[in-house]
Amino acid sequence: MNKAIALLLAAAATAAAAPGFAQSDYPSKPIKLIAPYAPGGSVDVLARTLATHLSTELKQSVVVENRPGANTMIAASAVARSPADGYTLLLASNASMVLNPLLYKKLSYNPDRELKLTNILAEAPLVLVTNSQTGIKNVADLKAYSKAHAGKLNYSSVGLGNPLQLTTELIKSRLDVAATHIPFNGSAPALTALMANDTQLMVDVAGTSLPHIKAGKLVAIATTGPERSQFLPQTPTIAESGVPGFRASTWFGIAVPAGTPADARNTLQAAVNKVMLNPEFASALGNQTLAARKPQTQAQLDDFLAADGQMWRKVIADNAIALEN
């Protein structure tokens, strides 16, 4: 072997070992999607539906691994510490990417430095509800009720610092409505108190309240999205009820370790975007009362994440909310 050939072989070997070259055939092995929620719920269905469609797009198995607990921190920490190679994904949410670092004094991961949001898949629409005894039908009624029953308006939540409670506080500040927070350990007791008129308001996930709304036990005052919810088309939004630009939701997406190579990240992002445009995917989400989102560019995602953080930072600071791990 002459010297020239030896040099060419050495150069080829070096290129094969380079990270960019190694990722050119991404994905070359199964991918793990870590979901921070227990099996069986609507968000678990979202994860498994995505995994099925994504497996087809990438021509590799995508396996869902459930790691619930600690308000998504167990799963988020696991992904943040995983190899940044595109083979470990997080089913991210506003809890894991935005709220946790604002609420907890000590956090086992840093979403700004250790995770990168690549897609927002869906939203769980939120609705402001009351019971049939208050007589409140709309935002104007709520404001009047608040003035007429000063100090006697209470709202249910499923606990301090969760998206539903924070959204209620945001609504209160934007509508100039006074209401006392009554936290409960779970949705069922919170709704029971509301329907018994022990509390008079609650922001809830639409899928949970919808059966009670249809049964006439709860009254939908307004939804919190930028446009009317497909699940409650007759219910106006907060935005169209006197607070232009109002938007609050619980959203779910995909995040990868921050150091994931660009070509792997771009391949993954494009494949997920293609799944999001599939009518079967949107229909499966709709069956879980989840609203599918349209694909966004990375710049749009980054801007959305920054705006979401800015909005919730103010709500949390104004109410001096802090949580212990």
From TrEMBL:
Residues 1-22 form the signal peptide. It comes from Delftia acidovorans (strain DSM 14801 / SPH-1). Pfam families: TctC. This is Tripartite tricarboxylate transporter substrate binding protein. Belongs to the UPF0065 (bug) family. The keyword Signal applies. InterPro entries: BUG (IPR005064), Bug_dom1 (IPR042100). The keyword Signal applies. Keywords: Signal.
